[in-house]
Input
Amino acid sequence: MGFFSKRKEKVMTYDRSRLAPAIRKSICTGEETFGFIDIRDGHFTDIQLLKNEKEKAEVLRQWAVDPDEVKILY
Output
């Protein structure tokens, strides 16, 4: 038991029957935000601001999302 023990990587899950992964992209600035769209009412919930492609790949891996299934919203 160490004071600075390594954190275990955790794969987060979401209800695939109710939510769809999406990236909201700003037309003006190009800023990208990862989140989920509620399939029933279309509400977008922000999860994380994506600053570069490395963060984007990390978030998709963390949530176990295939890049092909991500919707892009403008």
